[in-house]
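Revision sheet: structure tokens.
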Amino acid sequence: MAVNWIDLLDPTEQELRESTPCKLGDSAVELLLAKPAHDDDPRPTLQVHGDYVFGILMLPVEVPERNELYYQEIDLVVTGKAILTVRKTPASGEHPPYDLADVKEAVREGDAPGMVAYRIVDDVAERYLDLVDDIDSEIDELEDKVEDQPAATTRERISSLRHDLLHIRRTLAPMRDAVRRVVDDVVEVQNGPEVFPHDVEIAFNSAYDKFLRAFDGLEFSRDLLASVRDYHQSKIANDQNEVMKRLTVIASVILLPTFIVGLYGQNFVHMPELRWHYGYAYSWGLIVVTTIIQLVWFRRKHWL
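Predicted:
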């Protein structure tokens, strides 16, 4: 590979300063050495720092089996003659850092540093598209389970996916905007060889298109999740209606026997069947018959 490409993984300050292709500003060094503890900061960016372009790329990675989202970060320092990449192991230490194997295979003989930067950005864009597809698959799977799994589990998973979509959006949007600035020829050094010549800017337009598709797909994922939430809520409402219907049927079934027992329990001298030998059996028979009639009626109305 002819291009001067320096790749570092979790470097120390000494390793960074010995490997850098140009003199770095203090702010760039601080960001390159910062621990990868991410929420919303630092935000992905591509910006000019004097005679080099500095970039922060962040990729959210979903772990469905653990309902977990973590970040892979790769930082760039690009000049017209060399490119430095700094990869950081995710904060938990349980997950792998960003893998550049596919990018290294895609790099061609004679690629300029700016083109290598494009291939890294393009790979990140492809992974965003894959991430959105994985999220859609999880939402579809969740929808299939709404009928069977406990409501609390569904609510928890909907909440988790909603937060994941929000975090993905917070990294995807600035990534898209940063790439657009390269396409618009806003990001370019003032001194020295061009970092992003015209052919590289055209290539970046392809990556920008992928970020747009990923962003649109993310919006669609939010709509899918909202549909699952609405379906879940309507299922809960229907289940509650079924419970209320059954409770109403039970109350109605008990109502007539209660009335009959209350009628025969009135304390009057002259009462129906008061001195009839079969009066007790008759009252029970009346209760059983009226209860059976109600149950048959409710069954025909599909209330049971």
